[in-house]
Design goal:
- By secondary structure, the protein is an alpha/beta fold.
- The strands form four sheets. The chain has a nine-stranded mixed sheet, with helices on both faces. Strands 12-13-14 form a three-stranded antiparallel sheet, with no helix packed on it. A three-stranded antiparallel sheet has the order 15-17-16.
- A hairpin with a 3-residue loop joins strand 16 and strand 17.
- The longest helix has 17 residues.
- Bound molecules: S-adenosylmethionine and iron/sulfur cluster.
- S-adenosylmethionine (SAM) binds next to strand 4, strand 6 and strand 7.
Length: 386
């Protein structure tokens, strides 16, 4: 039996499912935008969706909001103004809430971003990917490096002092030199946070069916290590597999995921995870993925595509899958607080991981060792249910 004595922090994720066009490497729930975006209809749908979810989080306060996509910067400030008015009327929002919006440099305009700022959006996540025009073109991006730099300069100019840049490495046409220039250019633009992902060929993408020519894996790893060193020297400390932040600028929203906190998932294809203290259970829920089906069904039970209660046998693995991504690991008591079971529930796997030199622990902290970070999949697999 679970025993939740308190509830974890609550975040809100809102998904915007359209992009100017679909990038060939992307497996997110994103669709080529129709000529006229159904902005008002979609905002109405997400408000209905949120209204339907409210009883599951009565009395709780939202600690962070993340508007992701797709390309949320396709929507006007007026649309988000209406959305935020409804959110504030429906659920308490912490006055210190981090509110992030994902932006694409190809759809980034000064007046609109100033308006976003005025609405209370206090963090941006800008999808740069690379500053190399040849790589950007091969990735099917709608922007070039000049637009990427301009977008970051605009973010500074309109007063965003907290923003992330997404970069990828292991790209078509990439060399040691261009990979280095991507990172040094990003650092020179002074974001507070950098996400640095290796390009993966995901099933259900064009790149998976028709793989592009990519640099060899061995040199890519060397570039990654050298560039991680550059990030560290510039004050961007790695705190998660792909995330680097200046002091106190870690993404609060993503930290809540990695700490196995709760989140409402609103919008087409969005996922949520909510703890219920009365029922002593945790439920995962996902929404209809197709934008039209989502808009047609939002506010009814049909909008729910899947709903699963996390079992006692899976929960240790699910927690570790998230928490071990953090280079500093997690405070040991967090397991009991967010899982509702004593840490002894996963003792066998913890011992094995420790014996293999993949993890270190004491009563205060559990964290992956350097070896554990390098072989994260091996480490996490130890926590799979029998
Ligand atoms: C949800 S996407 C949305 C960002 C925004 N729509 C954009 O692309 O400008 C978040 C980030 O995931 C990363 N990403 C997406 N597909 C990836 C892949 N196949 N391999 C590695 N990183 C990927 C990209 O850096 C991207 O910016
Ligand atoms: S713009 Fe971003 S979300 Fe849209 S298809 Fe490209 S990578 Fe995916």
């Amino acid at each position: 039996m679970f025993n939740f004595t308190a509830l974890p922090p609550l975040s809100l994720y809102i998904h915007v499912p359209w992009c100017v066009r679909k990038c060939p490497y992307c497996d997110f729930n994103s669709h080529k935008s129709p000529d006229k975006l159904p902005e008002d209809t979609y905002i109405d749908a997400i408000i209905r969706d949120l209204e339907q979810e409210i009883p599951s989080v009565w009395g709780r306060t939202v600690q962070s909001i993340f508007i992701g996509g797709g390309t949320p910067s396709l929507f006007s400030a007026e649309a988000y103004d209406r959305l935020f008015s409804s959110i504030r009327a429906l659920i308490p929002l912490s006055p210190h809430a981090e509110i992030t919006l994902e932006a694409n440099p190809g759809t980034f305009e000064a007046q609109r971003s100033a308006d976003y700022r005025d609405l209370g959006i206090n963090r941006l996540s800008i999808g740069i990917q690379s500053f190399n025009d040849q790589s950007l073109a091969a990735l099917g991006r709608i922007h070039d490096s000049k637009q990427a730099i301009k977008a970051v300069e605009t973010a500074h100019k309109v007063g965003f002092d907290n923003f992330n840049l997404d970069l990828m490495f292991g790209l078509p046409h990439q060399t040691e030199k261009t990979a280095r220039i991507d990172v040094t250019t990003a650092i020179a633009l002074e974001p507070s946070h950098i996400s640095y992902y290796q390009l993966t060929l995901e099933p259900n993408t064009l790149f998976y069916q028709h793989p592009p020519t990519l640099p060899d894996e061995d040199p890519i790893i060397d570039w990654q290590i050298a560039n991680q060193q550059r990030l560290a020297e510039a004050g961007y400390r790695q705190y998660e597999v792909s995330a680097y932040a200046r002091k106190n600028k870690q993404s609060q929203h993503n930290l809540n995921y990695w700490h196995f906190g709760d989140y409402l998932g609103i919008g087409a294809g969005a996922h949520g995870k909510i703890t219920d203290a009365a029922k002593q259970s945790i439920t995962r829920r996902s929404k209809q993925k197709q934008p039209q089906t989502y808009m047609d069904t939002a506010g009814t039970s049909t909008v729910i595509l899947s709903e699963d209660i996390i079992s006692k046998s899976d929960i240790g693995f699910e927690f570790m899958l998230n928490a071990l991504r953090l280079t500093d690991g997690f405070p040991t008591p967090l397991f009991y607080q967010h899982v509702g079971l004593p840490i002894s529930h996963i003792n066998q796997a913890l011992e094995q991981a420790e014996q293999q030199g993949l993890l270190e622990r004491n009563i205060h902290l559990i964290r992956p060792t350097e070896k554990g970070q390098r072989y994260l999949n091996v480490l996490i697999e130890l926590f799979l249910p029998e």
